[in-house]
Specification:
About 20% of the residues are buried. It is globular, with a radius of gyration of 20 Å. It is built from three helices and six strands. By secondary structure, it is an alpha/beta fold. The protein has helices at about 1-20, 25-35, 45-60, and strands at about 40, 70-80, 85-95, 100-105, 120-135, 135-149. Strands 2-3-4-6-5 form a five-stranded mixed beta barrel.
Length: about 150
């Protein structure tokens, strides 16, 4: 019985693979396809779930490398006096606003004068990557899509 069920499932999958629609895509279909490219949309989760997911990103970054992440929060800036580098991040508070998590972001093809000011609410969409600096592993979102008010 299990073999028959498995065979029927395989046959159904093969039939579905060979069927499809032809024609041009409408604007809605194009928008939906673009939205589907986001692997993890944190903007749709509750604040508790977002906090938990960001915590997971920090503790097991290898599970997220290469995934497209969309997140919303406030901009924070760190100026490292030892290196002279500036780091921008999106900071998200949990439901009670007592704890915060942040992820650094890099806005591709934009210089520092174009980045949002500290405290500005932003939505960042980009690829999660890790990098080594001073023999330490860090992570950030490399984005070409930063929206802010």
């Amino acid at each position: 019985m299990k073999k028959l069920f498995a065979a029927l499932c395989i046959a159904l999958c093969i039939m579905l693979a060979f069927t499809g629609c032809s024609g041009s895509k409408t604007e809605n279909e194009t928008t939906e396809a673009k939205a589907q490219t986001v692997d993890l949309d944190l903007t749709t989760l509750s604040s508790t779930m977002v906090y938990s997911e960001v915590n997971n990103m920090m503790t097991t970054p290898e599970d997220y490398v290469g995934k497209v992440i969309k997140m919303k929060g406030t901009t924070s800036v760190l100026n490292a006096s030892d290196t002279g580098l500036t780091y921008y991040s999106v900071v998200i508070a949990d439901a009670t606003a007592c704890c915060q998590q942040g992820i650094e972001f890099v806005w591709v093809d934009h210089d520092e004068s174009e980045y949002p000011e500290v405290g500005t609410e932003v939505t960042v969409t980009g690829t999660f990557e890790t990098y080594l600096e001073n023999d330490m592993l860090f992570c950030h979102i490399v984005s070409d899509d930063v929206e802010f008010a």
